[in-house]
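User: I'm curious whether this sequence folds into something compact or stays loose and floppy. Could you predict its structure so I can see for myself?
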Amino acid sequence: MTVKAKALEKATYISNDDIVRHLEGIKKLEANTDLIGLTRHREIVEMQLKEEKEKEKDEDTRNQKKIDALKASLENLEAEREKLLTLAGYPATEA
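Assistant: Here's the prediction. I'll summarize afterward.
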């Protein structure tokens, strides 16, 4: 074998240990990639959950405002009723 052939054989030879090391490296890269993907997915789900909670909170606030407005309207109607009863000559009613 010529020197060139020996050098080429040595350069292209990959030991089993090298293969195992490369496979372990690939597995680690795949695991890291999966971990990054799962972490990102978790962040997205947490963000969506937070948005849903904010929507519920906003909806609860809107509903409470509607309830308060309806109560105020009812009180105004009741006061108007009392005025009209008094003007019509009926005795005031007790609530």
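Summary: The mean pLDDT is 88. The two ends are 115 Å apart (CA to CA).
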